[in-house]
Amino acid sequence: MSLGLAATARAETLSASALLQAMVDASKTLEYRGRLLYLHGSNISTLELLKGRFDGRDYERLTQLDGQLSEVIRRGDQTVCVHADKSITRLVSRNSVSPLGLTNGLSKTVPEQYQLLLDGDDRVAGRSAYRLLLMPLDSFRYGYRIWVDQQSSLLLKSELVDGSGMALERLEFISLELSPALSVEDFAIPASLSERALDSLDATRHPQGQIRLMPDWVPAGFTLADRDLRLGGEAHQPVSAATWSDGLAAFTLFIEELENDAWVDEVSQIGPTVAISRRVEGSDGRYLATLVGEVPPLTAERVLSGLLIGPSND
Q1: For the whole model, what pTM was predicted?
Q2: Distance between CA atoms of 157 and 168, rounded to whole angstroms?
Q3: Which region, left, alpha or beta, applies to residue 126 given φ > 0 means left and ψ of -120 to 50 means alpha?
Q4: pLDDT single digits (tens) 200-228
Q5: Superfamily for 200-311?
């Protein structure tokens, strides 16, 4: 039997769902150090990712290796963003800072709006990998190609693809060291010139926090995942934000009061990320609605076209 036929026969004996679950488990338990190549539209950057676990807590360090230095460090439930001007911002978050965030959405099950298929063998960063396809069953979301390490089950490479199969975003290890001799010192927070903490705003204290967003249509499977009030824009005024997700894809709506009619509707897209701003008439005034997310532009336009805005009834 040829090597190609042998690989095909071996792949057919595997379960795509079992491989996917093993990948999710590996992302939670393995310690590693690696360098990744990140392609987003026409932009390419190189990253270093460290993952360790000490005293029952996850530690991560993500460093941008080209351009201006920036880092994100997670130590348990504390996350620190290190900026190019040597200032830092502290956050309270248990979410992973890994760019391999696809595993977070698959921690429970594959959303029913996607089909999971095993697509044979490949190699990434000199390592043998299984290739999986996670394809949408409608045109309202993008699909994924996933490469899983045959030895460790770690996610080695992922691509976000449009309906024609073209990769809009790619993230892949170019080098990987499993079980490196990491210590807590590898996740030390550097000295800073200035520091600030980001706390969530109390929605009850701001009129913006009382705004109710009511899209009359979202794609099947998308549910409200988060709602908050944050500072935005050059004036750092409170902006209402609400996020919808199907478990993999997500988009966020930002709503702010529009003080004049000078605003021009805008559309932009970099890789899979679309940002569309539209003026919307609310029951008590005019607003600027901006949708940002990794969904096709037609999906974003349809959500915005049926958006209703008014005071909260809560």
Answers
A1: 0.85
A2: 14
A3: left
A4: 555 555 455 456 778 999 999 999 998 87
A5: MucB/RseB, C-terminal domain (3.30.200.100)
